Amino acid sequence: GDSVTQMEGPVTLSEEAFLTINCTYTATGYPSLFWYVQYPGEGLQLLLKATKADDKGSNKGFEATYRKETTSFHLEKGSVQVSDSAVYFCALSDPYGNNRLAFGKGNQVVVIP
Amino acid sequence: GAVVSQHPSRVICKSGTSVKIECRSLDFQATTMFWYRQFPKQSLMLMATSNEGSKATYEQGVEKDKFLINHASLTLSTLTVTSAHPEDSSFYICSARVGGLNYEQYFGPGTRLTVT
Questions:
Q1: What is the pLDDT along chain A (113 residues), one digit of tens a residue?
Q2: Are A21 and A84 in contact (CB under 8 A)?
Q3: Most buried pick, A8, A63, B18, B101, via CB within 10 A?
Q4: Helix, strand, or coil here: B43?
Q5: Pairing relation of β-strands A107-112 and A11-14?
Q6: Residue B87 Cα distances to A26, B81, B91, B106, B110, angstroms
């Protein structure tokens, strides 16, 4: 079935550092791809999405490009802030399965002042 | 806008008892609601999809008689864990969608269930 793989382990970095979180996927067909963010004590929020190959999703300084050739959707931000500390989930939407979402395990990001 | 709440945020119950978790869309009507389960350091796993006024569709491997889902109105869905066991301890998250397949899901903050 469709699945999403995120890099292992939490990510700790200093303020203004460059952030990359890797995400690769396995899917039949042509899924839409998403990044969700979960701040402490809150529900998941959609951060950005891309619906077809070579699309770039962007929001709040974060970007991710839908790479069909490498089946990837890596999340990047050029200069993180302490307020970016959260858990980030990569997900795909199965167009043949009622658009159900399949999630990666999530990555805890901690930004140190 | 598009806020989803869950109640309770945390619950502790004894083995063999049942516990109900509520999911509400506060400022929109949700035609479809989803229930997920999340184990520590694991991804969210979809348990079931429910449409208002109809029976829920359960994912493979999810016991429908154990996890009762009711979507009685366009703003409320409930998940009842019946005859709870310690292995049911988990983080349960709901989401709601306002329209058809191309509409975004909005997530609740989750409910931490501990069965002793």
A1: 789 999 888 999 999 999 999 999 999 878 999 999 998 878 889 999 999 999 999 999 999 999 999 999 999 999 999 999 999 999 998 766 666 889 999 999 999 99
A2: no
A3: A63
A4: coil
A5: parallel
A6: 29, 12, 12, 27, 18
